[in-house]
């Protein structure tokens, strides 16, 4: 989604306060906090012009970050958007592996991550070394084994894989491969979802997203009991017993599209809370209930750190060129097969 980066009335503290009041979080979005945000927003917009920079924001970011974003979307969507835009600098408001993906696809651009502590429990559950060992073991049993890496992986894990996939195209990619045996890394829940939609043998890695994995069927059933008419949209990183209760299983960008086009007016959004905030701000005529949890990594990125990253050009993502090319090959194969 393209956001107008010119100063808008929303940058004014009062209109920002009114706008963020829609989120129903009066403790966080006080008039005083919004005045502080408005100052940072004005500075970031000026620095973007001076440095020819873009701000890319993942769907799970804090709502005030959306105010300075040139694009909002899921990780790969954002990295690919950046290839089509003439900018020298990309400030990636998301987590580390996402900033790496932006660098993999935009090697000539400077990519900054406002806070280097912003990691990911899922990406950290697999390393290139452990993957190489497991792949070698399994190839003894299944010589045709292919490794499919979810984009929520580090660049060196992507480089060790045959092809990447997203939550939106995982089933399609696995089915398009000529191989019958698939080692799917790192999300066990997405692997289980893929297994239900293919006749191939999918071997899951032992990893999960701590945010989605903690959502239980009981939580969904409790909301459905009170609001039986609500449409349940769930992310495939959720457990199988949660997905079984959903009306639709889709990626975060799929949810935005679905909610905007659907004739239904009320939704239970089963993913990280930031997406519900985005939907509440963009589709005020519809109602969104949050059966969601916060991702502590995503919320490490703040407006103040985004301003500081642009001021001092700090926390640049640097990749070994051989790793970058290996990861780029796995992403390119995904685009071919998808
Ligand atoms: S929501 Fe889950 S997959 Fe996304 S960054 Fe947080 S821990 Fe990682």
Notes on the structure:
With 338 residues, the protein is of the alpha/beta class. It has 3 domains: 9-119 and 298-312, 3-Layer(aba) Sandwich (Rossmann fold), CATH 3.40.50.10800; 123-208, Rossmann fold; 215-290, NadA-like (Rossmann fold), CATH 3.40.50. The chain has 16 helices and 12 strands. The strands form 3 sheets. Strands 2-1-3-4 form a 4-stranded parallel β-sheet, sandwiched between helices. Helix 1 packs across helix 2 and helix 4 (75-83) packs parallel to helix 5 (96-105). The mean pLDDT is 93. Bound molecules: iron/sulfur cluster (SF4). Iron/sulfur cluster binds next to helix 10.
Task: Provide a short characterization of the protein structure.
Helices cover 45% and strands 14% of the residues. With 338 residues, the protein is α/β, with parallel strands linked by helices.
Number of domains: 3
Strand residues, percent = 5-15%
Low-confidence stretches: none
Shape: globular
Average of per-residue pLDDT values? 93
Radius of gyration based on Cα positions = 20 Å
Q: List the bound ligands.
A: iron/sulfur cluster
Q: Distance between termini?
A: 21 Å
**Which CATH class of the largest domain is shown?**
Alpha Beta
Order of helices and strands: HHEHEHEHEHEHEHEHEHHEHEHEHEHH
Number of beta strands:
12
Question: What is the CATH topology descriptor of the largest domain?
Answer: Rossmann fold
Order of strands, widest sheet: 2-1-3-4
């Amino acid at each position: 989604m393209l956001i107008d980066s010119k100063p808008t009335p929303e940058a004014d503290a009062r209109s920002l306060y009114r706008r963020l009041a829609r989120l129903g979080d009066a403790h966080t979005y006080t008039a005083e906090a919004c005045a502080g945000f408005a100052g940072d927003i004005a500075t970031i917009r000026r620095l973007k012009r001076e440095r020819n920079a873009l701000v890319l924001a993942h769907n799970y970011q804090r709502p005030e970050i959306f105010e300075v974003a040139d694009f909002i979307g899921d990780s790969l969507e954002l990295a690919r958007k950046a290839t089509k835009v003439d900018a020298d600098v990309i400030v990636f408001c998301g987590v580390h592996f996402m900033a790496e993906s932006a660098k993999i696809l935009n090697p000539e651009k400077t990519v900054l991550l406002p806070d280097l502590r912003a990691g990911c429990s899922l990406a950290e559950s697999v390393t290139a070394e452990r993957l190489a060992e497991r792949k070698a073991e399994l190839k003894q049993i299944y010589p045709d084994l292919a490794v499919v890496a979810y984009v929520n992986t580090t660049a060196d894990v992507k480089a060790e894989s045959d092809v990447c996939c997203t939550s939106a195209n995982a089933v399609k990619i696995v089915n398009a491969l000529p191989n019958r045996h698939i080692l799917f890394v790192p999300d066990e829940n997405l692997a289980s979802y893929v297994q239900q939609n293919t006749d191939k043998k999918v071997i899951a890695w032992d990893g999960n997203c701590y945010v989605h994995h903690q959502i239980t069927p009981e939580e969904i059933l409790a909301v459905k009991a009170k609001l039986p008419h609500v449409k349940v949209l769930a992310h495939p990183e959720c457990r199988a017993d949660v997905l079984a209760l959903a009306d639709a299983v889709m990626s975060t960008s799929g949810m935005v599209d679905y909610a905007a086009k659907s004739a239904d007016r009320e939704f239970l959004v089963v993913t990280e809370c930031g997406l519900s905030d985005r939907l509440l701000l963009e589709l005020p005529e519809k109602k969104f209930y949050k059966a969601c949890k916060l991702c502590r990594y995503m919320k490490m990125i703040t407006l103040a750190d985004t301003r500081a990253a642009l001021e001092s050009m700090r926390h640049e993502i640097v990749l070994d060129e051989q790793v970058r090319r290996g990861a780029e090959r796995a992403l390119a194969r995904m685009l071919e097969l998808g």
